[in-house]
Amino acid sequence: MRRRDFIGLLGGTAISWPLAVRAQQGERMRRIGVLMNLAAEDPVSIARAKALVQGLQVLGWIEGRNVRVDYRWGAGKTDLFHRYAVELATLAPDVILAAGAALPPVLQATRTIPVVFVHVVDPVGNNYVASLSRPGGNATGFLTFDYNLAAKWVELLKEIAPTVKLVGVLRDANIAHGIGQFAVIQSVAPSQGVDVTPINLGDANEIERGIAALAQLANSGLILTASPTAPVHRDLIIALAARHKLPTVYVERLFAAAGGLVSYGPEFVDQYRRAASYIDRILKGEKPADLPVQAPTKYELVINLKTAKALGLTVPPTLLTRADEVIE
Questions:
Q1: Which of 23, 97, 230, 281 stands the most exposed, by the fewest C-beta atoms within 10 Å?
Q2: With 60 as the cut, is the pLDDT of residue 20 above it?
Q3: Res 23 pLDDT > 90
Q4: 267 and 138 in contact (C-beta within 8 Å)?
Q5: What pTM did the predictor assign?
Q6: Domains of the chain: residue spans and CATH
Q7: Is the pLDDT score of 216 beyond 70?
Q8: Phi and psi (nearest 5°) for 164?
Q9: How far is the C-alpha of 190 from the C-alpha of 127, rounded, in Å?
Q10: 3-class DSSP assignment, residue 86
Q11: What is the pLDDT at residue 14?
C-alpha cells in the first residue's frame, strides 16, 4: 500500500475508523483503541500501523467485520497524549495499544481496561508492571531493549570512527531509562578509551546548543539513546550531526534511513505485529496480568555509506559483513 493511500485511509490525526460493513450475524464487534507516539502523516507511524493491522488480520480480526479500531496520534506532544488517552478510555474499548510515551497517560486514564504496550524500556523501574514475568496489573507488552544494548553503541562508534575520544550522549534525564542508558555507556567508556559527556534531549534549541558545544571539542562523536523525544527531533539531530561532522550512532533504523551514519537496535515494526498476538489473546479472554512482558526478537544493524563518505570515514569490511542493511 502506497504511503498517501494509507494516510488517506487513516484520514487525520485524531480519528475513529468508521465501520465499513455491519458485523456478521452473531459475531460480536470488538473495539481496540490505539495511541501512537508520532504524527499520523509520519511514514514511520504509517509503517507501524500497517504492521498492526496486518498482524490482526492474520489472526482473524478484520476492521469493519469483527473489530473497530480507534486511532489517536500523539505526535510527541504531552498534551495530546493526555487528551487522547482520556478520549480512548472514555470509549471503553476492549483493549488499548499504547506506544512509548503514550503509556503513562493511558495508565493514568485507566487501570481497568487491558493495555498492550510497545517501545517501553523499563516497565518495572517505571512501575508500569510488577515484574516482567508476572505484570500483575492491567498492562503488558514488549520491551524496547535491555539496558546492556547501550554498551554496544559505544563499541560500534569506536569501530566505525576509531579516532573518537569524547562521546556526547543525547539522553533524556527526566526519565528512568534516559539515566539508565547513560549509566551503561559511562560504565563501558573506559574500556573503549573514550570519555563521555551528557547532552540533554530536550527541545530543539537545547539539542542544537548541546551538539554545537560538543562539536567544538576535538575527536568527538555522538550517541543518540532511546527516548520518546528522539524520533520527533530526528531530522534536526541528523542535520546537526552532518553539519558538525560528528560520527553518530542511533538507536533505531529510521535514523540511518533518514541520513544518519549507523543504527543498531530492535526492529520496532516487528513489535506491532507481535502486539497483535497479545491483543488477540486479550480479546479471547486472557488477562494482561498473566501475560509476560516480552523482549525483542529482532535486532538490526544499518549502515549509511553515503553518510560515512561525507564524514570521510571508511567502514571496516568486517562491519559491513555484519550489517543487516547497507544504504548506498
A1: 23
A2: no
A3: no
A4: no
A5: 0.80
A6: 3-144+268-297 (3.40.50.2300), 149-266+300-327 (3.40.50.2300)
A7: yes
A8: -65, 130
A9: 32
A10: helix
A11: 41
